[in-house]
Amino acid sequence: MNEAAALPHGPPMNILPPTPAGLESLYTLCRKIYPDQVNPLQVTALIKYWLGGPDPLDYISMYANPGIPQENIPPHWHYISFGLSDLHGDGRVHDVSGADGVSGFGFELTFRLKREPEETAPPTWPATLMQSLAKYVFQSGNTLCAGDHVSWHCALDNSESRIQHMLMTTDVHLKSIQTPFGSVDFVQIVGICAEELKAAQQWNGAGVLDMISRVPSAGGLWFITDMRRGESIFELDLNAHEEVERGFELEGSNLSGVSARCSWVEQDPTRIDIMHLKEKTDCDNFQSTQDDSTLVGQKPLQSGNFEQSRSSSTNFKMDEIRGSSGVLESTELLHVKKLEGVHLVFNLEAGSLLPLAIRGRVRHGRHFTFKSVLGETAITLVANTVTGTLVDSEHPYVAQGSWLQILITDGLAQDMAVTFQVLASPEALSLPKTFSWPDKKLSVTIVADKL
Protein backbone atom coordinates (compact mmCIF):
# COMPACT_ATOMS: atom_id res chain seq x y z
CA MET A 1 0.00 0.00 0.00
CA ASN A 2 1.46 3.29 -0.94
CA GLU A 3 1.89 5.91 1.74
CA ALA A 4 -0.50 8.43 0.20
CA ALA A 5 -3.30 5.89 0.09
CA ALA A 6 -2.97 5.29 3.82
CA LEU A 7 -3.71 8.88 4.72
CA PRO A 8 -7.23 9.66 6.05
CA HIS A 9 -9.58 11.01 3.42
CA GLY A 10 -11.64 13.25 5.76
CA PRO A 11 -10.98 16.98 6.36
CA PRO A 12 -8.16 17.94 8.71
CA MET A 13 -9.29 17.89 12.34
CA ASN A 14 -8.67 21.61 12.81
CA ILE A 15 -11.20 22.63 10.11
CA LEU A 16 -14.53 23.69 11.63
CA PRO A 17 -17.77 22.36 10.15
CA PRO A 18 -19.62 24.83 7.91
CA THR A 19 -22.02 27.25 9.57
CA PRO A 20 -25.63 26.03 9.18
CA ALA A 21 -27.37 27.83 6.32
CA GLY A 22 -30.09 29.45 8.45
CA LEU A 23 -27.57 30.70 10.98
CA GLU A 24 -25.28 31.99 8.23
CA SER A 25 -28.15 34.05 6.77
CA LEU A 26 -28.68 35.74 10.14
CA TYR A 27 -24.95 36.27 10.66
CA THR A 28 -24.70 37.88 7.22
CA LEU A 29 -27.44 40.35 8.11
CA CYS A 30 -25.71 41.20 11.40
CA ARG A 31 -22.41 41.77 9.62
CA LYS A 32 -24.11 44.33 7.40
CA ILE A 33 -25.30 46.22 10.50
CA TYR A 34 -22.01 45.80 12.38
CA PRO A 35 -19.25 45.41 9.73
CA ASP A 36 -16.57 46.21 12.31
CA GLN A 37 -17.77 43.48 14.73
CA VAL A 38 -17.59 40.26 12.72
CA ASN A 39 -16.85 38.19 15.85
CA PRO A 40 -19.02 39.67 18.63
CA LEU A 41 -19.15 38.32 22.14
CA GLN A 42 -21.67 35.50 22.37
CA VAL A 43 -23.56 33.64 25.06
CA THR A 44 -23.74 30.01 23.94
CA ALA A 45 -25.90 27.12 25.12
CA LEU A 46 -23.38 24.63 26.54
CA ILE A 47 -25.62 21.69 25.65
CA LYS A 48 -27.66 22.39 22.57
CA TYR A 49 -31.44 22.11 22.83
CA TRP A 50 -31.65 19.20 20.39
CA LEU A 51 -29.17 17.29 22.57
CA GLY A 52 -31.35 17.68 25.65
CA GLY A 53 -30.08 21.02 26.91
CA PRO A 54 -32.48 23.41 28.71
CA ASP A 55 -31.84 26.54 26.61
CA PRO A 56 -33.63 26.81 23.23
CA LEU A 57 -31.41 29.61 21.93
CA ASP A 58 -28.16 28.28 20.47
CA TYR A 59 -26.45 31.68 20.60
CA ILE A 60 -27.05 35.26 21.69
CA SER A 61 -24.70 37.79 20.11
CA MET A 62 -23.89 41.03 21.93
CA TYR A 63 -22.86 44.08 19.90
CA ALA A 64 -21.61 47.49 21.00
CA ASN A 65 -23.70 50.16 19.28
CA PRO A 66 -22.33 53.73 19.48
CA GLY A 67 -25.78 55.26 19.06
CA ILE A 68 -26.15 58.82 17.79
CA PRO A 69 -25.68 60.98 20.91
CA GLN A 70 -26.36 64.22 19.01
CA GLU A 71 -29.83 62.81 18.22
CA ASN A 72 -30.46 61.66 21.82
CA ILE A 73 -29.71 58.04 20.93
CA PRO A 74 -27.19 56.88 23.55
CA PRO A 75 -24.51 54.19 23.21
CA HIS A 76 -25.98 50.81 24.04
CA TRP A 77 -25.54 47.05 23.89
CA HIS A 78 -27.52 45.27 21.17
CA TYR A 79 -28.44 41.63 21.86
CA ILE A 80 -29.63 39.32 19.07
CA SER A 81 -30.87 35.75 19.52
CA PHE A 82 -30.37 32.73 17.27
CA GLY A 83 -32.61 29.70 17.68
CA LEU A 84 -36.27 30.67 17.57
CA SER A 85 -35.96 30.46 13.80
CA ASP A 86 -34.74 27.32 12.03
CA LEU A 87 -30.95 27.49 11.89
CA HIS A 88 -30.29 23.99 10.56
CA GLY A 89 -33.17 23.00 8.28
CA ASP A 90 -32.85 19.30 9.08
CA GLY A 91 -35.68 18.83 11.58
CA ARG A 92 -33.50 18.63 14.67
CA VAL A 93 -35.36 21.51 16.36
CA HIS A 94 -38.08 22.86 14.07
CA ASP A 95 -40.30 21.24 11.50
CA VAL A 96 -38.70 21.47 8.09
CA SER A 97 -40.25 24.16 5.90
CA GLY A 98 -39.44 25.55 2.50
CA ALA A 99 -37.93 28.92 1.71
CA ASP A 100 -41.39 30.32 0.97
CA GLY A 101 -42.72 29.55 4.46
CA VAL A 102 -41.87 30.72 7.97
CA SER A 103 -38.56 29.67 9.50
CA GLY A 104 -39.19 27.95 12.82
CA PHE A 105 -41.32 30.30 14.89
CA GLY A 106 -40.68 33.00 12.33
CA PHE A 107 -38.79 35.44 14.54
CA GLU A 108 -35.73 36.10 16.68
CA LEU A 109 -35.52 38.30 19.77
CA THR A 110 -33.42 41.44 20.14
CA PHE A 111 -32.82 43.83 23.04
CA ARG A 112 -31.12 47.22 23.32
CA LEU A 113 -29.69 48.08 26.74
CA LYS A 114 -28.29 51.51 27.53
CA ARG A 115 -24.55 51.30 28.06
CA GLU A 116 -23.37 52.77 31.33
CA PRO A 117 -20.17 54.88 31.17
CA GLU A 118 -18.23 52.47 33.38
CA GLU A 119 -19.11 49.36 31.36
CA THR A 120 -16.40 47.78 29.22
CA ALA A 121 -18.32 44.60 28.40
CA PRO A 122 -22.02 43.87 27.94
CA PRO A 123 -23.96 42.47 30.94
CA THR A 124 -25.12 38.90 30.34
CA TRP A 125 -28.42 39.01 32.23
CA PRO A 126 -30.37 39.97 29.05
CA ALA A 127 -29.33 36.60 27.59
CA THR A 128 -30.99 34.85 30.54
CA LEU A 129 -34.11 36.94 30.01
CA MET A 130 -34.20 36.05 26.31
CA GLN A 131 -33.76 32.35 27.08
CA SER A 132 -36.74 32.55 29.48
CA LEU A 133 -38.93 34.09 26.81
CA ALA A 134 -37.72 31.51 24.29
CA LYS A 135 -38.61 28.68 26.68
CA TYR A 136 -42.15 30.02 26.90
CA VAL A 137 -42.43 30.14 23.12
CA PHE A 138 -41.12 26.59 22.70
CA GLN A 139 -43.28 25.18 25.48
CA SER A 140 -46.52 26.95 24.54
CA GLY A 141 -46.11 27.29 20.80
CA ASN A 142 -47.21 30.93 21.08
CA THR A 143 -45.16 33.52 19.25
CA LEU A 144 -44.35 37.08 20.32
CA CYS A 145 -45.24 39.98 18.01
CA ALA A 146 -44.80 43.73 17.92
CA GLY A 147 -47.31 45.34 20.27
CA ASP A 148 -47.45 42.37 22.66
CA HIS A 149 -46.65 42.90 26.33
CA VAL A 150 -45.13 40.67 29.00
CA SER A 151 -45.78 41.35 32.67
CA TRP A 152 -42.78 40.12 34.64
CA HIS A 153 -43.35 41.53 38.16
CA CYS A 154 -39.64 41.69 38.88
CA ALA A 155 -36.82 43.96 37.73
CA LEU A 156 -35.53 42.50 34.47
CA ASP A 157 -31.99 42.45 35.89
CA ASN A 158 -33.10 41.39 39.41
CA SER A 159 -32.11 44.79 40.80
CA GLU A 160 -34.30 47.43 42.47
CA SER A 161 -35.18 48.95 39.09
CA ARG A 162 -38.69 50.11 38.21
CA ILE A 163 -38.29 48.41 34.83
CA GLN A 164 -40.16 45.21 35.63
CA HIS A 165 -42.20 44.45 32.49
CA MET A 166 -41.78 44.30 28.71
CA LEU A 167 -43.34 45.45 25.47
CA MET A 168 -42.47 43.98 22.09
CA THR A 169 -41.70 46.05 19.01
CA THR A 170 -39.99 45.65 15.63
CA ASP A 171 -36.22 46.17 15.74
CA VAL A 172 -35.42 49.48 14.06
CA HIS A 173 -32.44 48.10 12.10
CA LEU A 174 -33.07 44.39 11.65
CA LYS A 175 -35.75 43.99 9.03
CA SER A 176 -37.48 40.80 7.96
CA ILE A 177 -35.08 38.46 6.17
CA GLN A 178 -35.56 35.50 3.85
CA THR A 179 -33.39 32.48 4.73
CA PRO A 180 -33.14 29.12 2.93
CA PHE A 181 -35.59 27.78 5.54
CA GLY A 182 -38.15 30.59 5.48
CA SER A 183 -38.72 34.15 6.64
CA VAL A 184 -37.52 35.60 9.96
CA ASP A 185 -38.65 38.80 11.70
CA PHE A 186 -36.84 40.49 14.59
CA VAL A 187 -38.92 41.30 17.67
CA GLN A 188 -37.27 43.73 20.10
CA ILE A 189 -37.83 43.59 23.86
CA VAL A 190 -38.53 47.00 25.44
CA GLY A 191 -38.27 47.34 29.21
CA ILE A 192 -41.17 49.25 30.80
CA CYS A 193 -42.46 50.09 34.26
CA ALA A 194 -45.76 49.09 35.89
CA GLU A 195 -47.62 52.26 34.89
CA GLU A 196 -46.69 51.71 31.24
CA LEU A 197 -47.73 48.05 31.38
CA LYS A 198 -51.13 49.06 32.79
CA ALA A 199 -51.57 51.54 29.92
CA ALA A 200 -50.71 48.84 27.38
CA GLN A 201 -53.27 46.54 28.96
CA GLN A 202 -55.92 49.24 29.19
CA TRP A 203 -55.41 50.54 25.65
CA ASN A 204 -52.84 48.80 23.42
CA GLY A 205 -49.11 48.21 23.16
CA ALA A 206 -48.71 50.10 19.90
CA GLY A 207 -50.05 53.29 21.44
CA VAL A 208 -47.70 53.06 24.43
CA LEU A 209 -44.75 52.32 22.14
CA ASP A 210 -45.56 55.43 20.15
CA MET A 211 -45.46 57.52 23.32
CA ILE A 212 -42.17 55.93 24.39
CA SER A 213 -40.64 56.69 20.99
CA ARG A 214 -41.33 60.41 21.50
CA VAL A 215 -39.53 60.52 24.87
CA PRO A 216 -35.75 59.90 24.52
CA SER A 217 -35.23 59.19 28.22
CA ALA A 218 -37.98 56.54 28.13
CA GLY A 219 -36.45 54.70 25.16
CA GLY A 220 -36.76 57.04 22.19
CA LEU A 221 -36.90 56.08 18.54
CA TRP A 222 -34.66 53.05 19.01
CA PHE A 223 -36.50 51.84 22.15
CA ILE A 224 -33.35 51.56 24.24
CA THR A 225 -34.01 50.18 27.71
CA ASP A 226 -32.47 52.11 30.60
CA MET A 227 -32.59 50.03 33.76
CA ARG A 228 -31.76 53.15 35.79
CA ARG A 229 -34.77 55.03 34.46
CA GLY A 230 -36.71 56.33 37.46
CA GLU A 231 -39.63 58.04 35.75
CA SER A 232 -42.48 56.65 33.70
CA ILE A 233 -43.71 58.29 30.49
CA PHE A 234 -46.57 59.71 32.56
CA GLU A 235 -44.08 61.59 34.73
CA LEU A 236 -42.02 62.63 31.72
CA ASP A 237 -44.98 63.70 29.57
CA LEU A 238 -47.87 65.39 31.37
CA ASN A 239 -50.21 64.76 28.42
CA ALA A 240 -49.65 60.98 28.39
CA HIS A 241 -52.49 60.08 30.78
CA GLU A 242 -54.98 62.03 28.70
CA GLU A 243 -53.72 60.37 25.50
CA VAL A 244 -54.19 56.87 26.93
CA GLU A 245 -57.65 57.63 28.33
CA ARG A 246 -58.77 59.19 25.07
CA GLY A 247 -57.52 56.19 23.08
CA PHE A 248 -59.17 53.78 25.51
CA GLU A 249 -62.55 55.50 25.29
CA LEU A 250 -62.46 55.83 21.49
CA GLU A 251 -60.86 52.52 20.54
CA GLY A 252 -61.30 50.24 23.53
CA SER A 253 -58.62 47.72 24.46
CA ASN A 254 -56.76 45.22 22.27
CA LEU A 255 -56.27 42.91 25.26
CA SER A 256 -58.56 39.99 24.52
CA GLY A 257 -57.72 37.52 27.27
CA VAL A 258 -55.63 36.58 30.26
CA SER A 259 -54.70 33.33 31.92
CA ALA A 260 -55.00 33.60 35.68
CA ARG A 261 -56.51 31.93 38.70
CA CYS A 262 -60.23 31.76 38.11
CA SER A 263 -63.15 29.42 38.60
CA TRP A 264 -66.87 29.18 37.97
CA VAL A 265 -69.68 27.10 39.42
CA GLU A 266 -73.34 26.69 38.68
CA GLN A 267 -75.13 27.50 41.90
CA ASP A 268 -77.42 29.85 43.67
CA PRO A 269 -75.38 33.07 43.47
CA THR A 270 -76.31 33.92 47.06
CA ARG A 271 -74.16 30.96 48.16
CA ILE A 272 -70.54 32.01 48.35
CA ASP A 273 -68.13 29.11 48.00
CA ILE A 274 -64.49 29.85 47.28
CA MET A 275 -62.93 26.79 48.87
CA HIS A 276 -62.49 25.14 45.46
CA LEU A 277 -59.91 27.80 44.59
CA LYS A 278 -57.69 27.22 47.59
CA GLU A 279 -54.77 25.53 45.89
CA LYS A 280 -51.17 26.45 46.53
CA THR A 281 -50.38 27.66 43.05
CA ASP A 282 -49.21 31.11 42.05
CA CYS A 283 -51.07 32.78 39.21
CA ASP A 284 -49.53 33.49 35.82
CA ASN A 285 -51.14 36.06 33.52
CA PHE A 286 -50.73 35.63 29.80
CA GLN A 287 -52.03 38.76 28.08
CA SER A 288 -53.00 39.15 24.45
CA THR A 289 -53.17 42.14 22.20
CA GLN A 290 -54.95 40.41 19.37
CA ASP A 291 -58.49 41.58 18.59
CA ASP A 292 -61.11 39.19 17.24
CA SER A 293 -64.83 39.97 16.94
CA THR A 294 -65.99 36.39 16.42
CA LEU A 295 -65.88 33.23 18.50
CA VAL A 296 -66.70 30.76 15.73
CA GLY A 297 -64.97 27.47 16.48
CA GLN A 298 -62.76 29.00 19.17
CA LYS A 299 -61.20 27.09 22.01
CA PRO A 300 -59.67 28.87 25.02
CA LEU A 301 -55.92 28.59 24.80
CA GLN A 302 -53.83 26.12 26.72
CA SER A 303 -51.58 28.05 29.08
CA GLY A 304 -47.82 27.86 29.05
CA ASN A 305 -45.67 28.63 32.08
CA PHE A 306 -42.28 30.27 32.33
CA GLU A 307 -39.72 28.31 34.29
CA GLN A 308 -39.41 31.00 36.93
CA SER A 309 -39.75 30.77 40.69
CA ARG A 310 -41.83 33.94 40.74
CA SER A 311 -45.13 34.73 39.08
CA SER A 312 -44.47 35.91 35.55
CA SER A 313 -46.51 36.34 32.41
CA THR A 314 -46.60 36.84 28.70
CA ASN A 315 -48.97 37.11 25.79
CA PHE A 316 -51.19 34.62 24.05
CA LYS A 317 -52.91 35.37 20.78
CA MET A 318 -56.58 34.80 20.09
CA ASP A 319 -55.93 34.13 16.40
CA GLU A 320 -54.10 30.96 17.44
CA ILE A 321 -57.03 29.57 19.41
CA ARG A 322 -58.73 27.84 16.50
CA GLY A 323 -55.70 25.70 15.79
CA SER A 324 -54.51 25.26 19.36
CA SER A 325 -54.62 22.07 21.40
CA GLY A 326 -56.62 23.98 23.96
CA VAL A 327 -59.13 23.49 26.70
CA LEU A 328 -61.90 21.90 24.67
CA GLU A 329 -59.64 19.32 23.00
CA SER A 330 -60.82 16.66 25.45
CA THR A 331 -64.26 18.08 26.17
CA GLU A 332 -65.51 19.48 22.88
CA LEU A 333 -67.82 16.49 22.37
CA LEU A 334 -69.50 17.09 25.74
CA HIS A 335 -73.09 18.22 25.75
CA VAL A 336 -73.62 21.96 25.79
CA LYS A 337 -75.27 22.94 29.08
CA LYS A 338 -77.44 25.99 29.63
CA LEU A 339 -77.13 27.33 33.17
CA GLU A 340 -79.65 29.20 35.31
CA GLY A 341 -77.10 31.09 37.37
CA VAL A 342 -73.33 31.25 37.86
CA HIS A 343 -70.82 32.32 40.45
CA LEU A 344 -67.39 33.45 39.20
CA VAL A 345 -64.25 33.67 41.31
CA PHE A 346 -61.07 35.53 40.25
CA ASN A 347 -57.78 36.18 41.95
CA LEU A 348 -57.04 39.86 42.59
CA GLU A 349 -54.65 40.30 39.65
CA ALA A 350 -57.21 38.93 37.20
CA GLY A 351 -60.09 40.70 38.94
CA SER A 352 -58.38 44.04 38.60
CA LEU A 353 -58.75 43.61 34.82
CA LEU A 354 -62.55 43.29 35.00
CA PRO A 355 -63.04 47.07 34.48
CA LEU A 356 -60.89 46.80 31.36
CA ALA A 357 -62.79 43.70 30.17
CA ILE A 358 -66.10 45.52 30.48
CA ARG A 359 -65.21 49.09 29.47
CA GLY A 360 -62.50 48.32 26.94
CA ARG A 361 -63.88 45.16 25.37
CA VAL A 362 -67.55 44.30 25.99
CA ARG A 363 -68.81 47.89 25.69
CA HIS A 364 -66.97 48.09 22.36
CA GLY A 365 -68.74 44.98 21.08
CA ARG A 366 -65.88 42.55 21.76
CA HIS A 367 -65.13 39.54 23.93
CA PHE A 368 -62.70 38.84 26.79
CA THR A 369 -61.48 35.45 28.04
CA PHE A 370 -60.06 34.37 31.41
CA LYS A 371 -58.17 31.06 31.15
CA SER A 372 -57.42 29.20 34.39
CA VAL A 373 -53.85 28.14 35.10
CA LEU A 374 -55.15 25.67 37.68
CA GLY A 375 -56.92 23.49 35.14
CA GLU A 376 -58.97 23.53 31.97
CA THR A 377 -61.51 26.13 33.08
CA ALA A 378 -62.14 29.19 30.91
CA ILE A 379 -64.61 32.08 31.19
CA THR A 380 -65.46 34.25 28.19
CA LEU A 381 -67.45 37.48 28.53
CA VAL A 382 -69.15 38.40 25.26
CA ALA A 383 -71.10 41.37 23.97
CA ASN A 384 -74.38 41.13 22.05
CA THR A 385 -72.60 41.82 18.78
CA VAL A 386 -70.03 39.01 19.03
CA THR A 387 -70.96 36.29 16.53
CA GLY A 388 -70.61 32.52 16.71
CA THR A 389 -71.23 32.27 20.46
CA LEU A 390 -73.20 29.67 22.40
CA VAL A 391 -75.19 32.26 24.35
CA ASP A 392 -78.23 34.36 23.51
CA SER A 393 -80.68 36.62 25.36
CA GLU A 394 -82.73 33.65 26.57
CA HIS A 395 -79.72 31.65 27.69
CA PRO A 396 -76.98 34.08 28.81
CA TYR A 397 -74.90 31.39 30.58
CA VAL A 398 -73.83 28.40 28.53
CA ALA A 399 -71.05 25.91 29.25
CA GLN A 400 -69.36 23.45 26.92
CA GLY A 401 -67.27 21.26 29.09
CA SER A 402 -65.27 23.56 31.37
CA TRP A 403 -65.59 26.56 29.04
CA LEU A 404 -68.23 29.04 30.20
CA GLN A 405 -69.59 31.82 28.01
CA ILE A 406 -71.47 34.73 29.59
CA LEU A 407 -73.55 37.20 27.62
CA ILE A 408 -73.13 40.72 28.99
CA THR A 409 -76.06 42.83 27.80
CA ASP A 410 -75.67 46.57 27.28
CA GLY A 411 -77.51 47.34 30.52
CA LEU A 412 -75.46 44.88 32.55
CA ALA A 413 -72.24 46.17 31.01
CA GLN A 414 -73.14 49.72 32.03
CA ASP A 415 -73.92 48.58 35.58
CA MET A 416 -70.72 46.52 35.80
CA ALA A 417 -68.61 49.41 34.52
CA VAL A 418 -69.79 51.48 37.48
CA THR A 419 -69.67 48.66 40.04
CA PHE A 420 -66.17 47.54 39.10
CA GLN A 421 -64.69 51.03 39.48
CA VAL A 422 -63.51 50.04 42.98
CA LEU A 423 -61.19 47.48 41.33
CA ALA A 424 -59.15 50.36 39.92
CA SER A 425 -57.60 50.61 43.40
CA PRO A 426 -57.32 46.91 44.34
CA GLU A 427 -55.00 47.63 47.26
CA ALA A 428 -57.93 49.28 49.07
CA LEU A 429 -60.21 46.23 48.83
CA SER A 430 -61.03 44.01 51.78
CA LEU A 431 -60.88 40.46 50.40
CA PRO A 432 -62.74 38.34 49.57
CA LYS A 433 -65.06 40.86 47.90
CA THR A 434 -68.30 39.75 46.23
CA PHE A 435 -70.39 41.63 43.65
CA SER A 436 -73.89 40.32 43.02
CA TRP A 437 -76.67 40.86 40.48
CA PRO A 438 -79.52 38.77 41.98
CA ASP A 439 -81.91 39.54 39.12
CA LYS A 440 -79.33 38.11 36.72
CA LYS A 441 -78.46 35.19 39.01
CA LEU A 442 -74.83 36.26 38.74
CA SER A 443 -72.14 36.76 41.39
CA VAL A 444 -68.44 37.61 41.12
CA THR A 445 -66.00 37.10 43.99
CA ILE A 446 -62.47 38.52 44.13
CA VAL A 447 -59.97 36.65 46.30
CA ALA A 448 -56.35 37.30 47.24
CA ASP A 449 -53.64 36.31 44.76
CA LYS A 450 -52.26 33.77 47.18
CA LEU A 451 -54.63 31.80 49.39
Could you outline the blueprint of secondary structure elements for this entry?
Layout: H1 21-33, E1 41-44, E2 59-65, E3 76-82, E4 102-114, H2 125-140, E5 149-151, E6 165-170, E7 177-179, E8 182-192, H3 194-202, H4 205-213, H5 233-236, H6 240-251, E9 257-260, E10 262-266, E11 336-338, E12 342-347, H7 348-351, H8 354-361, E13 367-372, E14 378-382, E15 397-400, E16 403-407, H9 410-419, E17 433-437, E18 442-447
Parallel strand pairs: 4-8, 9-13, 12-18, 14-16
Antiparallel strand pairs: 1-2, 2-3, 3-4, 5-6, 6-8, 7-8, 10-12, 11-15, 13-14, 15-16, 17-18
What's this model, at a glance?
This protein is of the alpha+beta class and 451 residues long. Helices cover 19% and strands 23% of the residues.
